[in-house]
Amino acid sequence: MSDTIIYGRNPVIEAINTGQKIEKVFLLANLRGELEVQIRNICKDNNIPLTKVPQRRLNDMAKGNNHQGVIAYISPVEYTDVATLLPQLEQDGIVPLLVVLDGVTDVRNMGAIARSAKVFGAHALVIPGKGTARVSEEMVKASAGAILHLHICRENSLPVALETMQQHGLMVYGTDLKAEKTIAEVDLKGPSAIILGSEDLGVSSKALQIADERVKIPQADNFDSLNVSVSAGILLYETLLQRVL
Q1: Which residues pair with 196 in a beta bridge?
Q2: What is the CATH number of the domain that holds 59?
Q3: What is the pTM of this model?
């Protein structure tokens, strides 16, 4: 499999208008006028991340094709959002388990997290529209295809998404090395969401403020924090233990 790229103004606009699964749009940084406004608005209306880049970057991505200042990647996955997904899970009698990725930018880490999420019974990955790894064919391979079998919620605002989860009765747990409770000391049998942050910064302060509880993985030695994908596997395994025993 290989990523599918759409080049050119009209093809990109047509792809969005006809409901193609667009992962991201790249727009020439110094583009101005009606086209820039049109692309920006259509991306906003369809919750598609838009990044402005210099001419050289577009040329490299296009590999000689005439991009006309705009390029779009077609996504290998179908996106939804938390506000749409949760009522569906409730209607089906499913006790939700969501994994929220707050700033995870490594493709292989995100793929490994998706694999653990599928194996241990999570129903969705929740990611921000910006500041996250692009869902690509490389990520599909890193997840061993697991990401194709999960709901992927792409959110304009993670804080709003977290509050929506709480409104639907989910307990939101933020991972924090300074937390007093370990993951085994909280009740994960009910509707739950677990927030994982980037390896360098961890979960954002805003997300931690919204979380109902902060949790940590116990460590025998305070050498360093675990890789985020390893942490995800441990957290989700504990959740599965609680839910099946």
Answers
A1: 101
A2: 3.30.1330.30
A3: 0.86
